[in-house]
Design brief:
Layout lengths: L1 E3 L1 H8 L4 H8 L3 E2 L2 H8 L6 H9 L9 H10 L9 H12 L4 E3 L3 H9 L8
Parallel strand pairs: 1-2, 1-3
Length: 122
């Protein structure tokens, strides 16, 4: 299973991610509600349809804030250049077995890689 971060989705929605379409066609892409919320803050073509399709994807488990904070402390993830949403995505990957994070964000990718949840996708 793959959890794509917001930047991957933005690139895909702009029509520049054939690999994302392949992963979607194979049913491998899962969604996190924070990613949908971030995308909803932007300008979307065919907004209602796009958001409905995103909401229709299978979802990863969403970590509780206390679980995210525990992960941050337990793995010393502070001062690594990731934000709360990035930490949430990593935590969701950790609590949803077999899920990897697809990102091009260097800091987020480094942290996800150190925890064994970075997807090896282009």
């Amino acid at each position: 299973m793959i959890l794509a971060d917001t930047s991957i989705w933005i690139e895909h929605l702009r029509g520049r991610m054939p690999e994302m379409q392949r992963q979607l066609d194979q049913g491998k892409v899962f969604m996190h509600p924070f990613v949908v919320a971030e995308l909803a803050l932007g300008s979307l073509r065919d907004r209602a349809k796009t958001l409905a399709e995103l909401d229709g994807l299978l979802r990863v488990e969403v970590a509780e804030l206390r679980e995210v904070r525990s992960m941050v402390e337990g793995h010393s993830l502070y001062a690594k250049g990731i934000g709360l949403i990035g930490a949430h995505l990593i935590a969701s990957c950790l609590i949803t077995p077999g899920t990897e994070l697809w990102t091009r964000d260097t800091a987020l990718g480094n942290v996800a890689g150190a925890l064994g949840v970075r997807a090896a996708l282009p």
